[in-house]
Amino acid sequence: MDELSEFLLYAALLLELKSQRLLPGPDDVDADEEAIGWEERDVLLARLLELRAYAAVADALARGLEAGALTVPRVSGLDEGFEAAAPDLLEGVGVADLAAAYLRGLEDRPAPSVDLDHVTVETVTVAETVLTLARDLPERGSLSFRELVAGIEDRIEIIVRFLAVLELCKLGRVRLGQGQTFGDLHITWVHDGEDPLDVGLVDDYAG
Predict the structure, then answer these.
(1) Domain boundaries, the chain
(2) What angle do CA 156, 158, 164 make, to 5 degrees?
């Protein structure tokens, strides 16, 4: 109702202003002088809204005081037989317990150690694997990568062999083919020359 009343008030003010503009009357009326009455009315409306806010706060305080009047505070202390005391933290602790605690405090603490079991130790390098494959692949001819890593269970060795195959392909020693997407990778030795393999051209994958 408050919002609707406020909306109706502003609508009535706008209609009154519009009707005064449409009806015949003196044309020499200054717009600033005409707006003086509206400014005073706006000030009066703002004061009414402010007074309404103060009245609402006063009503809330009155309801709080009425609710607080229904409560009765405790005026007496603890009943007889109750004693407010902190618990004894050393209850049940003897001289032997204190001596044992003292000896434990004097013991040397073990040096902190970091478990490195999860760290992969590089047992074979890409360059060594490239030389090994350069000796074995000419005799085996064409084979798949699955056959090349058959029997190898260590994941790092499989990765090193894959990198070595890529290095041989980059050096023009082998040709790689894949019949279909996600199919087996076929490796074919294509180099027939007798020039030695320059291991220095192999990229370093250390780490």
Answers:
(1) 31-67, 126-201
(2) 105
| 3-state class percentages of the chain: helix first, strand second, coil last, to nearest 5 | 55, 5, 40
Going from the C-alpha of 112 to that of each of 26, 108, 115, 154, the distances in angstroms are 99, 12, 10, 30
The DSSP code for 201 is G
pTM of the complete model: 0.41
Strand pairing of 174-178 and 142-144? unpaired
Q: Which two tokens stand for residue 68?
A: 């607080």
Q: Which residues make beta-bridge pairs with 174?
A: 189
Question: What's the rounded Cα separation, in Å, for the pair 125 and 118?
Answer: 19
Rounded distance between C-alpha atoms, residue 205 and residue 190, angstroms: 25
Query: Hey, which of 52-61, 63-72, 103-112, 151-160 has the most confident mean pLDDT?
Result: 52-61
Instruction: Write down how long the chain is.
Output: 207
64-95 as b/e: b if 16+ CB within 10 A: eeeeeeeeeeeeeeeeeeeeeeeeeeeeeeee
- C-alpha dihedral sign at 119, 125, 130, 133: negative
N- to C-terminal Cα separation, the chain: 76
**pLDDT band, very low/low/confident/very high, at 84 (cuts 50, 70, 90):** low
Q: What is the mean pLDDT of residues 45-61?
A: 88
- Domain covering 126-201: architecture: Orthogonal Bundle (1.10)
